[in-house]
Amino acid sequence: MPDANPSHLDLQATAKEVMQRHGFEPDFPPQVPLQLAELKAHPPQIAAGGDIRDLRNLLWSSIDNDTSRDLDQIEVADRGSNGDVKIMIGIADVDAFVPKLTAIDQHAAKETTTVYTGIRNFPMLPEELSTGKTSLLESQDCLSVVIEFVVDSTGIVKSPSVYRAVVRNKAQLQYNSVGAWLEGKSPAPPKVAASADLQAQLKLQDQVAQKLKDQRFQHGALNLQTDELHPLILNDQVIDVVKQQKNHATELIEDFMVAANGVVARFLEKVSSLRRIVRTPERWDRIVQLAATKGEKLPAQPDSKALNDFLLRRKAADPDHFADVSLIVIKLIGPGEYVLERAGEVAPGHFGLAVQDYTHSTAPNRRFADMVTQRLIKALLAGQKNPYSDDELTAIAANCTQKEDAAKKVEREMSKRLAAVAMQHRIGEVFDAIVTGATDHGTFVRALQPHIEGLLAQGQQGLDVGDRLRVKLIRTDVQRGYIDFARA
């Protein structure tokens, strides 16, 4: 009989096993260390000149998770005399270190994404690159592709340009501490407190990001909430899980990246490229029915603006249950996917963001699609022919879509196991909870604190989605990722 509550080492092995079951190859092939050794002996030259600008003097900063070292982007803003603000986003030039069809590139092309299992990360690129040479770490000169645009007082993006540059990250910052400071909830983190210029820079970026977000919402971008759980690990042991909170810092990066990806998509419209799309939902009728159960009426034809207005009203009326409404809407809209867009053709847009032109370009250390897009950009800037044929791009799009779906399944499976580990010492405790699902397969509840979901194994009669109750934790099974509650 297998142990239902294995050790930390077992969880690491389980994560690798789950990866392999879903079609990933977590270990790098033997040719990769050889390429890394060659890179170490003959690294690419990091110098300005020709078409590579020197922008190291600007007050660049990065904001990412507290533990992230695979830094893909840095940002800086500059207010013009007319009130418009120029935004520059430096993207790590991964292609300079990983040429097409090399061993590292071929492995990345198969895996397509870094997978974050909570207990261990499985990087798409060797960590010697993704958290070292191709990461925009603080106080290092780095090659980058810069995406530049101007944002006017209403949040409209104009004057876009894309070019190469040498950059230098002056401040490596974290979401939680910067977000709390921007929202006035806590003092500035030390690096920010030490620099009045950096304080002004981040506040300017925050103001611009809020305008970008407002402009997107006016066009019908969806205000959805998903509750991501992250394990809290002490001395290599999972002791709790915490909900990843959105804040002004996470939104700042999100809004800048959405704008940058739109700029890149339009920059590449004269060549074949990859687009990131979310199709107009085929199951719109079910979304209309969902709204009707809440006393709301949506139009018969898909309308992202009307849907977002409904979501905003639900968030105000029932914030505790909004994540569940969001999840239902996300499932009914359907997943994002990558597709080929040929020059002169128009691919479907991104329904969730309410934009027509969208790609992925801002995370080349973590996503292969972004690395491909980076090569398309550099070839266009250099006046060279497209490095990928339409057939290659079509195959890459299909594989990236399939592997992204597989990565989500891996992360979901591991998240359930980690939650079970965190809760195994709390059996017998009672929690406030809400019913999140009532189907033939069972009734599911989510504890409000900590944000853990499980099966209501006893006392489920007469309950429906949205009902509040008290539940007692009665069982956990780490091996399967099961958490069972009983009505208290």
The coarse silhouette is globular
The number of domains: 3
Largest sheet: 6 strands, mixed
**Strand count:** 17
* Residue fraction in strands: 15-25%
Helix content: 25-40%
Sequence of secondary-structure elements: HHEEEEHEEHEEHHHEEHEHHHEHHEEEEE
Query: End-to-end distance, in Å?
Result: 30 Å
Integer average pLDDT: 91
Could you characterize the architecture of this molecule?
This protein is of the alpha+beta class and 488 residues long. The chain folds into three domains: 8-279 and 338-421, no CATH class; 284-333, no CATH class; 427-487, Nucleic acid-binding proteins (OB fold (Dihydrolipoamide Acetyltransferase, E2P), Beta Barrel). 37% of the residues lie in helices and 24% in strands. The protein has helices spanning 8-21, 31-41, 103-111, 127-133, 175-182, 190-193, 196-218, 248-267, 284-293, 304-317, 322-333, 368-381, 390-423, and strands spanning 52-54, 60-64, 73-79, 85-92, 115-116, 121-122, 141-151, 157-174, 228-234, 237-244, 273-277, 337-341, 430-439, 442-447, 453-458, 468-477, 482-487. Strands 1, 2, 3, 4, 7 and 8 form a six-stranded mixed beta sheet that branches. A five-stranded mixed β-barrel has the order 13-14-15-17-16. A hairpin with a 4-residue loop joins strand 16 and strand 17. The longest helix is centred in the last third of the chain and has 34 residues, at 390-423. The two termini are 30 Å apart. Mean pLDDT is 91; it is low at 1-9.
